[in-house]
Amino acid sequence: MYHDNYDEGCENDNNDHDKDYDKRHNNDHNKDSKVHDNDYEEENTDLQDFLDGALEGVIYFSLGTNVRSDRMTEEKRQIFLDAFSELPQFRVLWKWESDELPGQPSNVKVAKWLPQQDVLSHPNIKLFIYQGGLQSTEEVIRACVPIIGIPIFADQNRIVINMAEFGAGVYVDFNDLKKETLLNKVNEVIYNKTYKENMKKLMIRLKDEPDNSLSRAAWWIEYVIRHKGARHFRTAALDLTWIQNLLLDVIACIIFVLFLSFWIVYRVILLIRRIHYGK
């Protein structure tokens, strides 16, 4: 949650500590990483039958909401189609935003929208191929499904790198994507149980909390209301003038010190010349 009012005292966001271990925050910053998680199930008989009937398992492929997979170049789309067609033992569930998928293999099912949390929680899901979105990362960790991350933009690259470094999946560069690379990564992540075990460790860490994220977010909102905006949590940086904020005072001081140093050196050189030549 981003705020525009500098007078408010507390900020909630839905980043998770385990995936953002390299970031630091002010005292007015509260992490509520799982407030978007839902406990409901949406009935979809066709989708349910597709998932239930996958004897060897299902590969779930989604690039999230900000990236439309139907806008991939024909070359990239064909790479996925060719790779999925060579995995007939698995069913593939693909979030595809158009009515039809040209060249759709028989083991692939497409849908414009999918109840992602419910899909990931299905026991037959063996692998999640995704773009490294924050919400999707939290959902896949809670579902304990190993991943193949193909980051597209923004913070997705950092998130996928973190997941790969933890051993919960692998990183694939979208620009260098080849059918053979995708096939090798799919088989590696599905059949190497280490990825599943590492994802389970992440899941346990993510769920190990003293309270519910939604309850904690509500408590902090009520706290700010009770304390009239909780201005005691405000960072002093909000009170800086524009000159201080742009560090113009610091820059001016550095320039002055440099100028003074050069001037002193110049005067010393002149003094030495006078003494040496007696002028």
TrEMBL record:
Region (Disordered): 1-39
Record's compositionally biased regions (Basic and acidic residues): 14-38
CDD domains associated with the record: GT1_Gtf-like
Pfam family, one: UDPGT
Segments traversing the membrane: 246-269
Listed InterPro entries: UDP-glycosyltransferase, UDP_glucos_trans
Keywords: Glycosyltransferase, Membrane, Transferase, Transmembrane, Transmembrane helix
Protein family: Belongs to the UDP-glycosyltransferase family.
PANTHER family: EG:EG0003.4 PROTEIN-RELATED (PTHR48043)
Listed name of the protein: UDP-glucuronosyltransferase
Organism name: Periplaneta americana
Lineage: Eukaryota, Metazoa, Ecdysozoa, Arthropoda, Hexapoda
